[in-house]
Amino acid sequence: MALLSIKNLTIGYQTKTGIIKAVDDISFELERGRPLGFVGESGCGKTTLGMTLMGLLPDNALILGGSIGFQNKDLTQLNEDQWRRVRGKEIAMIFQAAMNALNPVMRVDEQVIEAIVTHHPEISSNDLENRINELFDLVEIPRARMKDFPHEYSGGMKQRVIIAMALACKPKLIIADEPTTALDVIVQDQILKEIKIIQQAMDTGLIFISHDIAVVASVCEDICVMYGGQIVETGTKQEVFASPCHPYTKALLGSYLSLDNQYSVIIPDMREAPDLTLENGSCRFAVNCTRCSSICKIGIPHWMNISKTHRVLCCDETITGKSQ
Ligand code: ATP
Ligand code: MG
């Protein structure tokens, strides 16, 4: 049984000009041992999806439809009391840019202790000490540095603390939202490897969010490409890399510099941001799509299967290459 099963999830934000759909009719399943990556441009709804899974949407957000199946519960139906028992304990999140949010006047180990004690107030001081040592070992911070203040840490070390805090209560699902974006490539590479090792060792489910498809592919087995609040293509990383179908996925891959850029496609000039208020189900990418044809202007995108695991959302049947 899937650890997480999301069906037709739609999340809106109430704004001055009306409701925008930041997440629009998203469905997917997550298996424990298969990290799932979400990739897409800024504003495509990645963090909104993560915050929904943590029950941390702001007051102007609305769950407009769908369900989130997790441990025989539908998370969209939980009240705040019930969320408190899930958040941090069953599902934890490494928040976007969280390393800048460490408390500057609190020692690092105290901040991790707080994350444990919040959910396990009964824990003995012995067990707490063992757990803290175990967590710092896991994220490879020397025990001698545990009592430092955050300003004494490098960016990479701060991000490791944030990961330790997310792991503190051995959650069943971790959502990592751009966990390495602010780090240099060497430290990024080390932390990505550690996240993968930890995920396998703890056998947790992992949703990994990034705007960088190469980063997502280094951690995840399966990839969902998002555009304008929707998943537009999904498949194993091999499928998405070797035979991208959606014009947006091709653009993402084509935007990478490579000496033998086999995905060199004409990168669309992204002139217009997607219209998140569209109610008629028409294609949100059409305005920027190099393949946009008359079918796309009147049609509604629908899911097409390329393989059992590889699917694309588009109006144009020829895009799969099967009917060309
Ligand atoms: P980034 O890569 O920049 O982190 P993202 O993919 O995480 O982007 P979200 O932060 O989920 O994107 O935002 C999705 C859309 O929802 C954007 O259009 C954003 O402007 C809008 N949005 C996010 N939070 C709010 C809010 N509190 N009120 C209104 N609109 C919001
Ligand atoms: Mg975000």
Give an overview of the whole structure:
With 324 residues, this protein is of the alpha/beta class. The chain has two domains: 43-56 and 80-219, Rossmann fold, CATH 3.40.50; 221-324, no CATH class. Helix content is 30%, strand content 24%. The strands form two sheets. The chain has an eight-stranded mixed β-sheet, sandwiched between helices. It has a four-stranded antiparallel β-sheet with strand order 2-1-4-5, covered by helices on one side. Strand 9 (222-227) and strand 10 form a beta hairpin. Helix 5 (155-167) packs parallel to helix 6 (185-202). The chain is globular and about 70 Å long. The mean pLDDT is 91. Residues 13, 15, 22, 42-48, 58, 60, 96, 211, 276 line the site of adenosine-5'-triphosphate (ATP).
Features of this protein?
324 residues; alpha/beta; 4-stranded antiparallel sheet; globular
| CATH class value of the largest domain | Alpha Beta
Q: Superfamily at the CATH H level of the largest domain?
A: P-loop containing nucleotide triphosphate hydrolases
User: Share of helix among residues?
Assistant: 25-40%
Q: Low-confidence runs (pLDDT<50, min 5 residues)? A: none
Identify the strand order in the major beta sheet: 6-7-8-3-9-10-12-11
Q: Please, how many helices? A: 10
Q: What is the average per-residue confidence, as pLDDT, rounded to a whole number? A: 91
Derived from helix and strand composition plus strand pairing, the structural class reads alpha/beta
Termini separation comes to 37 Å
Main sheet record: 8 strands, mixed
What kind of assembly state do the chains in view correspond to? single chain
